[in-house]
Amino acid sequence: MNPRILPLAVVGVLLLSACGTSNAPTTSSQQGGSVSLWAEWSSGEQAAFTAALSPFESQSGTTVNYSSKGSNIDTVLAAAVAGGAPPDVALIPDPGTLQTLAKQGKITDLTSILSGLSSNYGSAWNTLGSYNGKLYGVWFKGANKNTIWYNPAQFAAASISSPPKSWEELIQDVSTLKAAGVTPFSLCTDIGWPVADFWQNVYLKTAGADKYNALAAHSVKWTDPTVTTAFTTMAQLVGTPSNLAGGLQGSLSNAYPACVDKVFPKAGSQPQAAMVFEGDFVATEITGNSKNYMPGTTGSGGSSCTTDPSKTPCYNFFDFPAPSANSANSAAIQGAGDVAVMLKDTPQSEALIKYLAGPDAAAIWAHLGGFASPNKKVPASAYPDPVSKGIAQALVGASSFVFSLDDLQGTWEKNMWQDLLDYLKNPSSSSISSIEATMDQQATAGLGH
Amino acid sequence: MAASSLGRGHPVLPAVGVATPARGAVPTSKVDATTGRPAGGGRRDQLGSLLFLAPAALWLLAITIYPVIVTFRNSVYDENAISYVGLNNYNVLFSTASILVTFRNNIIWVVIFPFVVTFLGLVFAVLTERIRWSTAFKTIVFMPIVFSATASALIWRTIFDLDPHVGMVNAAVQTASDWVNPPGLYPVNASAGQSVAALASSGLSPGASGSLQSSAAVQPGDTVQLGLIGINAATLQVVGAQGAVVPTQSSGSITGLVYRDFSPSHPSVRGQVFPDENGLPGIVLTLLRSDGTSAGATTTDQHGDFSFNNVASGSFRVQLDARNFRSGFTGIYWLGSQSVTPTSHLSQTAQALLSVPLVDLAMIVAYLWMWAGFAMVVIGAGLTSLNRELLEAGRVDGATEGQIFRRITMPLLAPVLVVVLVTMIINVLKIFDVILNMAPGASQGDASTLALLMFNSGFTGGIHSGLASAVAVILFLLVVPAMVANLRRIRG
């Protein structure tokens, strides 16, 4: 065989087979049949998700062919859509992908399919799942980054009976903690993303969700006065080294999750700080440090919380507070989530989408733990403990929901992290303007506008 | 003796073969010594060889030569490799302070590491020849080379950790330091942003050099209440604190109380002694005259009470000595970007070029641990193949061991040392994994090298293929001289 023809022949065969796949008519039109479903979850999460799907399979007789695509599901899905072989339904972690797919007409308008079910979600969630006023997605799973975790025994040592509800109360509690000899805060700032998460919460709580989204799209400049406010507000808490476990230097040498371990240590050590900020995934780290940690404010057997991890320690969280002047933003939440979209309109995929939009699947996974649903209809009793219930309630009641701003910055994300670290190293008001100018320059270069 | 000397009497060359086994592996008998080609082959044989070589050559062309050419091309194009930008990428490289740092780090590595590792290898090789358990010693020194660089970097990251409870180096320093300079009962860690002045709550103000003293002047017959905040409940347990008791006045004495000014029942009230507040025991106090000289010293009891008895009339202040608050050693941040050369007064660009961050040195130590064994083995192989007769002759002629080492061993060993040196120069020019895994994120920017810069600008975050390619080209040009030198040396 002429060697030059061989590659062409291979390409030809591939093209033919690709066409064959994309043009194949959908044969299974009656219920029963099967539906293909992609999501990012694997191992433990996959098992929980599969358990959540099993009632659907047994009731409808439809087989769900679940395939885990890991954290790069966006890329995999884009390739599959371009190649003409997408799954029937996919759960994607990025609202931007939903927008893109809706714009390209690759996903189905769910407005009429979900007419009775979209009221299960607050308007913040339906807005996030919509494109051009039409509903394209169902937010099946949510993650909450609006959480400051605290060691209740440490708060008790400073006689703080209830967690702060406003930024001012938080600052007041910080000084009370210090008077009692308890270091208030533990920060992981070995790398920039935890600072970015923190700063973004401060910005959301001071400037509001609309400004937040505008800044994310760089239609508000980084030199805007609201950015300055966020910097100075953040400095009230983390700009004083004595507020931080290990001071500034100790924070800069902390890689996540070392800061969590300083508040919720393993047996054999005492906590070195009272609070730590990060998203709901902190709970996994805490319970991983010791099985003794009880969610909420009472230790095991109803005894009071202790600082000693080998006795009856506890963990709890409070919502990242807004300054009282900006209390309208107190229910605005920064987080992440997985939205279900329909790529092929078959009766089976419609039934699956409806099932995911209802409370049943979410309730099953919620009961298994490590899950929070923005769905109003999921009963609070489905959650196994007060902490996961509280996280889910915050999601359900969110007045607006925004995604991590840094993740939307594309190529300059790492510059943004570094700039925020630079500010933390020198949190004086004089350094703000030069850092803002740098950030705006980098945002312009990175986003192209 | 003579027989064993002869048995070891190989020429130096095979030792070189250790570094490059592929080339040394061709049996000498079938190779023409001058051309390196198979002896006595005709045109047919050559054609045959070419035929067999062709697949490998094509493969090499596809995965080595082609990428090199494309990298050169991309280095003069923009971030998406679409439009031509001339030497703009190179301009950016040589004018951005945060990028110049990477050149500086490469220079630090190249200047320090190859020479030190060669020296260490030489010392180990020479010394192991003379000890009994040399194989065991060699095995231990060589062992780190079998660990992946990532694993080694993570091990050393822990060894250099800031927290003395985690980091071995700081734990050792702490033990020594606390022995010489024991910490006080109420340590204040200045490096964590704490200050003695912040402890003063009521009746106290900052005194000389890290001490506190009573704000008001006191006379015999007075009693003072001195409140401190920021004392942890755990500390109270350690020192055995008991409930604060306000002492009674007594004429001719200055009495007082040092207490924890934090009441669980009144968490925001200061300056008042509540029944649930504790006295602070073990605080060393000095009674200061108005001229600052000492009029006596005492220590507080379990209830925080103290008294200076039989005080002559006059005006005094009570000082809480600095040693109460002396913190123990709290750790040196070995992996930080603080410079070991004083450059803070220089401009930003000069700083970037002239400072030597501590983290660089910590990483060099880790890398020495990883490679000293390799240098030792290669140099050791060279050492065993030395012509012993020359050494014997030197000894017979009355040369000292030092002279023999400097005048005979070293010159004979020079080719091997150069090979180790050059190999290590190439090795550190492209150093990457140790920095990525050992330098904490906060100091990674200051510890970055060209290879890491290439990775970061080409493959993570802000992807800029032009900049990354330009770095790759520079790295290539830097490695070429060392590579050529090594190849020449191998050819002999």
Tell me the layout of helices and strands.
The complex is a heterodimer of chains A (449) and B (492).
Chain A: H1 5-23, E1 34-39, H2 43-60, E2 63-68, H3 73-82, E3 89-92, H4 95-104, H5 123-128, E4 130-131, E5 134-135, E6 138-144, E7 147-150, H6 152-157, H7 167-179, E8 185-186, H8 193-207, H9 209-216, H10 225-238, H11 247-252, H12 258-263, E9 275-277, H13 282-289, E10 294-295, E11 314-319, E12 332-342, H14 347-357, H15 359-368, H16 386-396, E13 400-403, H17 413-425, H18 429-447
Chain B: H1 2-8, H2 13-19, H3 21-24, H4 43-74, H5 88-95, H6 97-128, H7 134-142, H8 149-159, H9 168-180, E1 200-202, E2 204-206, E3 212-214, E4 223-228, H10 233-239, E5 254-260, E6 284-289, E7 294-299, E8 305-308, E9 316-320, H11 348-354, H12 358-384, H13 388-396, H14 401-429, H15 433-438, H16 441-447, H17 450-459, H18 465-491
Parallel strand pairs in B: 4-5
Antiparallel strand pairs in B: 1-4, 2-3, 3-9, 5-8, 6-7, 6-9
Helix pairs in contact in B: 2-12, 4-18, 5-18, 6-11, 6-12, 6-14, 7-12, 8-12, 12-14, 13-14, 14-18, 17-18
What does this structure look like?
The complex is a heterodimer of chains A (449) and B (492). With 449 residues, chain A is of the alpha/beta class. In chain A, strand 1, helix 2 (43-60) and strand 2 form a beta-alpha-beta unit. Chain A has helices at 5-23, 43-60, 73-82, 95-104, 123-128, 152-157, 167-179, 193-207, 209-216, 225-238, 247-252, 258-263, 282-289, 347-357, 359-368, 386-396, 413-425, 429-447, and strands spanning 34-39, 63-68, 89-92, 130-131, 134-135, 138-144, 147-150, 185-186, 275-277, 294-295, 314-319, 332-342, 400-403. Chain B has 492 residues and is an alpha+beta fold. Chain B has 18 helices and 9 strands. In chain B, the strands form 2 sheets. In chain B, strands 2-3-9-6-7 form a 5-stranded antiparallel beta sheet, with no helix packed on it. A 4-stranded mixed beta sheet of chain B has the order 1-4-5-8, with no helix packed on it. In chain B, helix 6 (97-128) runs parallel beside helix 11 (348-354), helix 12 (358-384) crosses helix 14 (401-429) and helix 17 (450-459) runs antiparallel to helix 18 (465-491). The A-B interface holds A 157-160, 176, 178-182, 189-192, 240-250, 252-253, 255, 269-270, 307, 410-415, 418, 421, 446 and B 79, 161-163, 165, 189, 191-195, 198, 201, 229-235, 260-262, 264-265, 267-268, 270, 333, 335-336, 440-443, 445, 456, 460-464.
